[in-house]
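Input:
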Amino acid sequence: MNYWLVKTEEDIYPIDQLKKDLETLWDGVRNFQARNYLTSMNKGDQVFIYHSNAEIPGITGIAVISKTAIPDPLQFLTGSDYHDKRSTKEKPLWFSPTFKFKFKFKNKIALEELRNIKELKDSPLLRKGNRLSVMPLTESEAKVLLSQK
DNA sequence: GCCAACGTTGGC
DNA sequence: GCCAACGTTGGC
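Output:
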């Protein structure tokens, strides 16, 4: 099993919305490196949900991959912000796995706290200027995060 | 294939 | 709202 971390803007799609929806297609990611990670997610992988653009940015909960990636339907949707005219049904550019809500942390692990966890100091999440919205976590990074709550 | 200009992300 | 840092685009 693999571990991942994805960012979502708190006011766009917070963990509470995932909790309500129970399952969601993780669409709209338009970065090649992130895309490559999304397509390598396997059923059962755990995904830590991070809220960016929040009053207190940080990790708020966990989802599980319930379905591996399919072509992101938004890329074909003319007029959508996520439409990509380079994409065809035969050769889609963007892919979306399905996330299933697992649980929400009682307390968010704030970015400020994350910076104090020494096991995380090499994670892209904390690297200055890094904007990647999907990234792998090592098992030890995941374990440390789970032990926080 | 380089690189400047532009757009976006995300913390503060 | 600002701005640093980065990814992408497009002219050459």
